[in-house]
Each structure stands twice: as C-alpha cells, then as structure tokens.
Design a protein that fits this description.
Length: 304
C-alpha cells in the first residue's frame, strides 16, 4: 500500500492527510464567515430576526441535495478504499489474507459510520425539532464519512458504528453553537468537516487497532495505536497537536487572505445584490422560480 502520508511519520493513520485537507478548508470557511460578521452586516440578510431568533431560509431543491449526497457517497469509496492503490498484495499472516481484506474492511467501516450518523441525525433532530428533515440526514451522513476517513482502515466495524453515532451529535451540537453565536454557514461545512473531522482524528487515536496499523504500515514495528486498544497516549497526543497545527496554519494564511479581500471589498456582495439575488445581478437571469403558497396551505390545514 502507498498511503497518502509518509511511511516515516510515526503517529499517523491512513487518510490522515485527507482529513487535514477537509479541516483546512472548513477552518478557512469559518475564518471567512467570522470576518464577514465582524466587518460587514453579519450573517445573510434574514437569517436571524430582530430578536436574534433563527430564521430558516428556503433552500433550492431537496431532490438535488439528496442526489448530490449519493454522488458524494459513491465517491467516498474511491476516497477511502481507493487510497490503497494496490489490491493484490498478501500479508505475512497468510496467502488468503491481504490488502484486499483491508480494502473490504475500509469500505465496511466507511459505510457503517456514514449510515449510523445519518440515522442518528434523523431521529436526533426529530426529537429536538419535532419534525423530519432530509437535509439534516444528508449532512449527518457526510459528517459520519468525514469522521471515519482518518481511521477507516485501522478500526473495527463496531468502532465505526460508535464513530458515526458520536459524529452525529457533534454535528448537531456544532450547529446549535453556531446558531447561538449567529455564525452563518449555509452548507454547515465548518460544523460538518471541522467538527466531525476533528472528532474523527481523536477517534482514530482512541480506537486504532495494533494489528491493522501494522498491516497497513508494514516494516515499522512499534507504531503507536489506539489508547482504548492498549496503545497508550502517544497517538492521541500527536493527533491533538495535529488539530492545533491545522487551526494555527489556516488562521495565519487564510486570515491574511480574507483581510486583504475585505479591504478590497471582494469578500462579500452588497446588500442590494444579496436581496436581488446573484442569479440576476451576476449571471443575467433567474435560476429558480418560487411560488410562495405556505400561508394558503396553512389556512387549508387549519380548516380541516
């Protein structure tokens, strides 16, 4: 196997660079939104009312959200199992047990974490909000995928279920915190990839199995593995440092970029453009046609 990370690095697990890329992107998004809130009109117009209460803004198409989620789901199998590159490689433990076994295990853990997170988000948000929401389920699924990516090949399936369950509540908690702070991320990208991705890094340091680590990274005995699997705290310490380094690096590099964009008045469109819609002001036409009949439907339901 040729993993994404260096074989000489003692405290990393498969696909760790993938998680790092996701986290860097989402921390950048957090910095961008924070800069807008501080230096401009804050969140999107209408996102919060005058009393500070959350106002749910209408999305474009739930159907397209689900379609896009399934496309990402399919692509994640190339992202996680596909990272092995070489399939036909036997392990020393036997000719019938090799790289193909690790690839299969990676596909299973990826699926279990995502599906567990989706179901947990479905019922969790139902209990908290009182209704079902397909968009929440899609984001929960992706949160589970983001969390399991770091340790997908070095944990057992049962641990992947736990990973997905916790990642769903991490996402829900991060969204609640974002609402309280009036932080507006239309895609929940920071909460999803930043929050769930951070949990995934910690999760790997807790549940990475020694046998799987040695199989995926052969030739270097003594590699650290999960704390809860008897491997001590070395891997956990390294992963905590990794999270801090990612946040620091992105804060310096992207914070500078966003400051420059703000000074050049390129970070956010004007209030007039926002109200009119960029489909009209920047692209020359309307992409969506809405018929607002919610009040009429409510009256009909009330009359029944």
């Amino acid at each position: 196997m040729q993993p994404r990370v260096s074989q000489s690095t003692p405290c990393v697990t498969p696909d760790k660079n993938s998680v790092a890329v996701l986290m860097k992107t989402r921390v950048s998004r957090l910095l961008s939104a924070s800069h807008r809130i501080k230096n401009r009109n804050g969140p999107r117009i209408g996102r919060f009312d005058h009393a500070g209460r959350v106002v749910t803004l209408r999305g474009h198409s739930g159907t397209l959200v689900v379609l896009g989620t399934f496309l990402l789901w399919f692509g994640w199998y190339g992202f996680n199992p596909g990272s092995f590159i070489n399939i036909s490689k036997s392990y020393e433990s036997g000719s019938y047990y090799g790289q193909w076994s690790a690839i299969g295990r990676t596909a299973v853990t990826t699926t279990l974490a995502g599906c567990t997170a989706a179901l947990t988000t479905l019922f969790g948000k139902r209990l908290l909000a009182g209704h079902w929401n397909v968009t929440d389920v899609c984001n929960g699924l992706l949160g589970g995928f983001a969390a399991i990516t770091g340790g997908c090949s070095v944990v057992d399936p049962w641990a992947a279920v736990l990973c997905g369950f916790v990642s769903a509540w991490v996402l829900i908690g991060c969204n609640k915190l974002a609402e309280k702070l009036h932080y507006d991320d239309p895609l929940e990208a920071t909460q999803l990839h930043g929050g769930c991705g951070s949990w995934g890094i910690i999760f790997t340091a807790l549940f990475a199995k020694e046998a799987y680590v040695n199989e995926v990274y052969p030739g270097q005995p003594g590699r650290p593995y999960g704390l809860f699997m008897g491997g001590g705290a070395r891997l956990l310490a390294a992963h905590i440092v990794q999270i801090l380094v990612i946040v620091a690096w992105v804060s310096v590099t992207m914070g500078t970029l966003f400051f420059i964009l703000h000074k050049l008045k390129l970070l956010r469109i004007s209030a007039e453009e926002e109200m009119a819609g960029m489909d009209m002001t920047s692209h020359g036409g309307l992409a969506y046609v809405y018929t607002d009949h919610e009040d009429e439907v409510k009256k009909q339901l009330g009359a029944v």
